[in-house]
Amino acid sequence: MSSSIVLGVHSPLEASLVEQLGGAGIWVSGFSISAACFGLPDEDAARIDDKLLIIERILKSSQIPAIVDIDSGSNDVGEFAHLLSSLSEMGAYAVCVEDERTPKVSALYESDQDLLTSEQFSERVAFVDERFAGKVIARTNGLVRGYPATHVCEKIDHLLNNVPEVSDVALHGDNPNLMLTVIEKYPNLNFSIIMTLLDEEKTNAARELRVDHLIFGHDLLFASIVETSHVARQLIQTGTSPVDRSAARHLIDTLVGRTATLSDISNEMLEYYNERAPEYEDWYDREGIYDKGETLNERWSKDVDHVASVLQKIESQSIIEFAAGTGKWTKLLARKNQILPTDASSKMLDENFKNTGIKGLIIDIYQDLPDALLGKFTACFFGFLISHVPRGKIEALFERIDQALSPPGGQVTILDSYYNPTELNCLSHSNDIQLRTLKDGRTFRVVKHYFTRVELETMADKYLADWSIEFTKDYFFILTGTRKL
Questions:
Q1: String of DSSP letters for 450-478
Q2: % helix / strand / coil in the chain, to the nearest 5?
Q3: CB atoms < 10 A from the CB of 126, how many?
Q4: Residue 17, pLDDT score
């Protein structure tokens, strides 16, 4: 079943990145903040006011829901109340409070310290619920500490009987079967799972459970410190750096709001597609960075096949294809039509010719067409182009269509992607600019706008007659119509 992926962060930069890449939410991790921001173990060693300064900056940097890990709170009632009121004012979506004693020992460390009793835990959760304005997630570490599932269920039962307002529970452990035992007993509760102790096989099992959130609490911290260690070692030992500094700077500039404007990156886009041409088909074939696993790959293939079935219905047309790329759709449309593939990228057209045997033509869609092409076509097709056109240049694109089509109008078919966070194959996505990477690690900025249904309908009303829009199940839209005169 589908669960929201929530990623643990310890900085505003990470929170902004998760939001731009389509994350459902962020987990403001107590472990990560203690380690990364204070250089302390996860044992409630940092002052609450110091942690609040970090948390406030993180919450301000992102608009997606934030779950704040408040660990075991504080033994000081006034300090604990101050923490909760501050998080309420900051607009935290939820807080997660656990049943470790205070001062806590992290669930990631071995400990012979007992957890709170059912009564004590219910009292703590009730305290939080009375003072925090958002959602309260009650987290038990019983499974981590080796308690049986029956113990965890007894604690949840006591909680439900004494704090009925709480409807969300988080589990932390390394055994999905035990988690399933607990979850099945409470069909009306919302569950989250802390994923830190689950390896790949167990992660896949956990993804099949009935849970609202899969919380990857520390993976970004773990990844950053491992990679930082590798780079630091190479710098110290060799005096050379493996870092792509240009890519890193572009990414940081994007995240902190100092990115290029759309008009600045047209040449960069052309270079990107020239360099991507030999590996472009990996996207269709779900290879390399585009391999999303069996389930998502199957969904992708079904949508691609459906698009093919729709385009196969176009016949007996003379088609000009803009942004023809490597020729996947050129080859299909050529079966029943005459077609001229065009592209701004010479390397793309080289790949297109290899795949189709049809000689293409380099065309800049923002410049007038050659005289020899004026009015020579009955139809125009382009796939995965319009999302890369700055919105201020849509008019110029339809002017090229008008130049190509013979009167009175002609058939127009537009294929492109709609927004799906699993298909953000980029390092960042903000303000219609993506930072993308090639196999060799080089990065480029490209324009990418995901049209909403309303935007597509507005555009269709302006430029097309007798139009219709079809959305495939997960990834694509197909807009068809005839050009208005």
A1: ---HHHHHHHHHHHEEEEEEEE-SSSEEE
A2: 45, 20, 35
A3: 16
A4: 93
Q: How many domains does the chain have?
A: 2
The order of strands in the sheet holding 428-430 is 428-430, 433-437, 443-447
φ, ψ of residue 203 to 5 degrees: the values are -60, -45
Dist. CA 164–CA 171, nearest whole Å: 18
User: H or E stretch including 305?
Assistant: helix 294-311
CA separation for the pair 445, 351 (Å, rounded): 22
**Nearest one of 388, 393, 396, 436 to 416, comparing CA atoms:** 388
- In this prediction, residue 466 carries a pLDDT of 93
Six-digit token string for 70: 């408040």
Q: Which two tokens stand for residue 151?
A: 């113990």
Q: Which domain holds residue 364?
A: 266-483
Tell me whether residue 252 is in a domain.
no
The reported pLDDT for the residue numbered 262 is: 64
Tokens of 24: 């459902």
pLDDT at position 10: 94
| Peptide bond between residue 408 and the one before it cis (omega within 30 degrees of 0) | yes
- Is there a single domain that holds both residue 454 and residue 343? yes
List, for the chain, all residue ranges whose pLDDT scores fall below the cut of 70: 1, 258-264
Tokens of 143: 């499974």
Tokens 């909680």 found at: 159
pTM score > 0.85 for this model? no
pLDDT at 2: 72
